[in-house]
Fold these 4 entries.
Entry 1:
Amino acid sequence: MKLSTLLSDNKIIPTAIAFVITLIMFFLPNQFENPVYDNHIRAKATVISVDNSMVNHVGLITYGDQVCEVEVASGLYSGERFIASNMLLGKLESDKLFNVGDKALIVMQPNIENSEIIKVTMVDHYRLNLELILVIAFAVLLIALAGWLGVRAIISFLFTVLAIWKVLIPAFLMGYHPIIVGMMFTLLLTVLITMLVYGFGRCFLSAVLGSFLGIIITAGMAIYFVDVFKVHGAIMSFSENLLYSGFSTLNLNYIFIASIFIASSGAVMDVAVDITSAVNEIVIKKPDISKMEAIKSGLTIGRAVIGTMTTTLLLAYSGGYLALLMVFVGQGVPLVNILNFNYVSAEILHTMIGSFGLITVVPFTAITSGFLLTRSKSSTE
């Protein structure tokens, strides 16, 4: 493709902007580096032998110390063998047992004076290579099916991951107001991702405005109903660990509220883009369509979209709590009790408020696309 053709495409500049921002975020320093870990060396290792003599089994619980002989497979000490410790705490969710031939991530603690390794700890099974294969396969398939749009989708994916890791989470940890930070984050994300889809133009403006209004409604409802439901933010997994690790001043309720509209913002954006694209295609096929007809078409399309999207939200949110629900059902807990438990109430909040955002974004986007994408009568003539 010629350079002049590329430059004439209104998506090239937005793609370049998004790529530069993503690159900048990639090189942003980690503001919460722990000096304790600076003297430790992480490496991939192969398990040569295991000693389970100090491992104890009590029913389903396993505790004790598994001793492993490992051969380092990467880094400065590659090829050397060490005795490593795998502490078992009696928690199925965190404990792991190694077998001969397993690949593991280990942490080596060297002596500061002579660099001799004085302690080796088994961290977990080594999965980076498998994760990399999945990421590469995902990128290849996306580009193969979507072409240049797939490249832009990968950039938006990387931008989102880096924005969460380098901007959103550090801002929360530094004590900035979670609701304000969350709103700014979701709105910025909406602008950039929509910009990558449409470039700069009326479709971009229509989808962004519709998404903004839907997200604002979702945030307002989350603020109100979290207080009314009397659900504490500590129901989030590992939130208490966060308080005890030096961040006791964080407001977990505000973080929980922010998590509600952040989690639904992707679906809201998806619905806004779907409606905008559909209305735009209608206007292209029928340039003389009136604004009211275009709005009605957008509403009709939106009804079909939200019919499946609300179910998608329900499945996405409830999937993480299947084990909890199975415990309740297996123990014969009455439904009234289940619906009043804070964990279940929190998931109802997530699902219902997210669904409200999806429903409200439909008329908002239908109106914005109807007014912005249709042409006036004189221009049509």
Entry 2:
Amino acid sequence: MKNAYRLFRRNGVFWCQNNATGKQESLRTKDRPTAQRILHAKNEVERQPQIGLQMARAYLAGSDPNIGTRTWSHVMAEMGKLKQGATLERWGFAVRDPAFNLIRDLVIIETRADHLLKVLDAGTISTNVFLRRMHNFALDMSWLPWPLLPKKRWPALKHQIRRSIKWEEHQALLAREPNEETRHFYDLMWHLGGSQSDVATLKAEDIDWETRVIAYHRQKTGTIARLHFENVIALLLEKLPRKGFLFPRLALMHEKHRCKEFHRRMKGLGFQGLSLHSYRYAWAERAKKCGFPERFAQEALGHSSKAVHRSYARGAQVVIPALESYENRNLVAGNNE
């Protein structure tokens, strides 16, 4: 049987060429015996594909004894060890997706692209998101020797529209909310832009009244969010407890119940597409619109990534002033000096 590949050398480096398609590929070696072994392996794989899989297993087993038994459930478990709190709870819920049953007990090294495509077909947008993470984690850990699906072959993610809460909607919510503690909670969410769990579990000890700073560690990422406040927030904080949790009832409530309570209020008001996270979008958009420096906004929201922060602020409608107005302002300032 004719070989599928032939060997040649270019600038001292050995290459192989597919005799059928003419495609050329560098073998990345200048040593002829090494190049010939690689070429022989490629030709054997073309003649008997199963031999190629067995050879790959044999080589990989030399560096990782568990390569032949490690399954995707192991990936799910190991990724869960890196998470905590509410994030761990969400991860546990995500990996229980029935679509993952198609690969849960499948050995990673035996996984093919069509296995992942079947999972994506059976799942939802969430399945797509978490399967990508598991695939990339396996690659990073060298449990998967090569990508099963190139980036361009993953189905596009189509998230639901996320929007910020408007001032008028926030005021309508406050007017409708009968519980004083919850009403203050929504109002502080507007002013701080924190995630609902972080704001609900704020303590009086997180407030430095001397410097007028609120600082806390974000539960999701552990990063520090730090925000200076003035009179409006100060007046609100004075209405809250001076020891322990600022919102004692809400601090002990599960986040899903706080979300459901907020959703009922929004449904009653006839507002669509809003969640408690909409307050973070609103704060980021307000900061961008008024020209608040991005590095300060990142610190206030606890964003360590500029990309993440910009995704939150992308809905802001910024009014760009005319260059002439800036020139005239600088001219007036110069004359006054």
Entry 3:
Amino acid sequence: MKKTKIIFYIITITLITILSSCAKVNEKSIEDIATGNAKMKVSVHDPQVIVAEDGSYYMFGTHMTAAKANSLTDWSMFATGVGARNKLFDNLFDEEKEAFAYVGKNEDGRYSVWAPDVIYNKATGKYMMYFCTTSTYVKSNLCFATADSVEGPYTYQNTILYSGFTSSTVKKTNFYDIMPEDTKITAYVKNGSYNNLEWPNCIDPALFYDKNGKLWMVYGSWSGGIFLLQIDEETGYPIHPEANPDSGVDTYFGKKLAGGGHNSIEGPYIQYDEDTRYYYLIVSYGVLTSDGGYQIRQFRSKTVDGTYLDAKGQTLDTVVDHSDYGVKMMGNYTLPSLDCTYMAPGGQSTFTDSEGKMYLVYHQRFKDGTESHEPRIHQLFSTSDGWLVATPFASNGESLKENGYQSKDVTGTYYILNHGTDISSNENLGKETTFSSGAIKGEYEGSYQVKKGSSDISITIDGVIYKGILIDMTDEAGNPVRCFSAVGDNNQTIWGVHYLENAEDESIN
């Protein structure tokens, strides 16, 4: 063999070796993966986050809790506890206690103030807080308060909507201020009690602006489902529509969007995405206890008042078993780097920061023998099919990779977690699977494709195509990870986590 050919052969083998080594992403062994839980140091149930004018963050939740932060990971409480000592409100517990006049106290003799939602009113220049007071699983009302600053104090203005009334108690509400006096109450009462299988429980309000700048309120919990009313910006009061039973529109309660028959659906939040031009209805299913199967689902619509559909093209109405309806975004899960199983995520909301990044906020319980909980904040992205997916770990400043990925960047061991569609205490585990040259082998079998130069990934498992995004981030124990989050047309979301050897690995090309 001539010398030049030998040199060419050596160079060729060297290049193949280099390219082969580049094709494999360095990864940690299971023994070297650090475990932990990035605690938030605050406890806020049904959390909602609003970005203040100076870029700081404010979080509000059930039981008059509130926290603030300059970053999404460093929160401090400034209000907690239902009572006059809590200065979040300046008049809620005045002698009249108007917000509690109808509902009264709970069985334990305490007042309940649940699930607030704060929004900046563009017309009045005021911050508006919508919240609920309640005493039973149907006897509730929605109230609103205003403040000059996001931190408050908030001044209770009025109660705007009531549920749980009967023929003898309806006159204690504003029902006949809205409805004609000859309205037959029998349409809302069954066997002498409020018909909660058809009509809503007036809790869990959430306010949002539509693409045309109109203000809306979505609300409801279990009972007759989720309802929608337009809000008058100038006054803060609902704009009650003309009744249209064929379209699910009631003058008093508004437009029914989903649920009914006392199916477990609550905590509604609607997010409009200018990129996909969809309205996303995000809700909780299940019971909020750690073993109650609490979880987060989504539906979407091109119009603000629906119809809201899932990935199967279904809308949720009254059904016997609703577990197969709605795209399940997350439920109970565990991954190698988590120090315990994460249980019962829910009570969610969304927000967009000053950079245009969208986030999902919710409270999280854990498999630790208690009902303790803390808020979590995960970044949201839209897939090529226009569904929202959350990152597998809490947000820590990550962004989509500017130049995207190539197929070789995905090579390695992944722990795939399928959230399924069950409503149960089952724990979804990350299962070890190998990605290489477009093939998936191990606990899951299938194939994958990466759209070159983008963050889009398509994964096929058992004949189902899941479309999602790839992202590099740091997990809650400090490990650098490469993740995917993807949705299939079976209403299931899968997560994949690849533990990188070090942060430098994310830059390979």
Entry 4:
Amino acid sequence: MRILFINPSAKNLYGQLGTHLIPLGLAYISAVLKNEGHQVAVIDLQVEPIPIETIPFGNYDLVGISSDTPRFNNAVALGRKARALGVPVVFGGYHASFLDEEPLLKNAADFVIRGEGEFAMAELVSALERNANIGSIRGLTYRTKKGIARNPQSFLIEKLDDLPFPLREIFSLDRYLTVNEGRRITTMVTSRGCPFDCYFCAASRFAGLRWRTRSIGSIIRELEQLVQKGYSYISFMDDNFTLDHRRTIDFCDEIIYRKLNIHWWCFSRVDTIVKHPEMVNKMAMAGNTSVFLGLESGNQATLNHYQKRTTVEQQKAAVRILKKHNIKVWGSFILGEMHETKKMIKQTIQFARKLNLETCQFSLLTPYPGSRLFQQMESLQQLMTKNWDLFDGLHLVFQNSNLSAKELQQLLRKAYFKFYLGISNIPAALRALLKDTGTFRQMIYNIHLGMDIIQKLGKDSI
């Protein structure tokens, strides 16, 4: 079959800013389908601003669209256009996995694949090609003459080594020329699943509570291929790359032994960092230069409500350990938890400044479909809107009894202003310029990011 995959563009500011990186989910599914003899093409509207009217839907037998919640409305428009031309459409990704009837009821899709889509998509394509029954394909939701049918949930992929490497070559690689520290960037995934099930996060519901990993050998083989293709900065997109500290150390030992000239970035947790400083030392030796930490708040009561299972003191200690090894810290904070007061949020803003992080991301608490937070909001009828465009981390979309939408956006704007544009940042910027031009460039980029968000929030109607 001839299959066209589309990655929708983002209307929200966070989706428009930042780096252009290959969507790995589509790259994995494309690799599986190509191995089975199908013709696959991809249009990534994040980097290719093609008008919807010019997309050649009619040249394909099936169109696949994957999106998260803020891009769902764009995905619907694409699906409707393809179906109007007589081409069947399948939806996947986080949003459609948890609200699987919505694309069908909006006449944007004929099929929805819930959860991990590689093998389910291959089964669906094979069945459609043979005009066979699709009732046995696990994880599939679809239209019937009697209404919407939902097959049993699919099994998680147990042996991740069974998956082929992502088919990056199917993308227009000249559009993905993002660099960091003077090195060309690409993304990788070495594990799936997350056992922590944070209250506001849907990742554990999508990929499971059980952590599944690729073998070190498989990871190294992909890395070596990427290095040969000119990539030397790797962003590991695992929900928690360092969950098993022994595995992380083994991985680093292989990097060092093979003398792979790479720098890399990953997600981690503060408690893992604090418990295993020897792991951090090995990470630095193996080329790790930046770590993303979901810090969320500088107030312990708020952390407890988020069910983070971490402490403010652990956060401070983790940042100290990383900085000791010259590893930059990207900290993420969420403002507007239901029990938070204005004073508590200001405490978080001040806490973020004192940590002296290289990069900081602030967003408003958003109940994404699939999270326990969303389920609570639905059951208590606390959602104020289901305009998914507003589920972007910049808008209040639920009833908050402590703070209004206007107050929260003012606090969000203040957070970015204080962190990126405060006068206390000037000495740090001068030190970075004298010591490391790469760090200075990153700081300038971060300041531009903060200014763009402040401008956006200033213009936004509430």
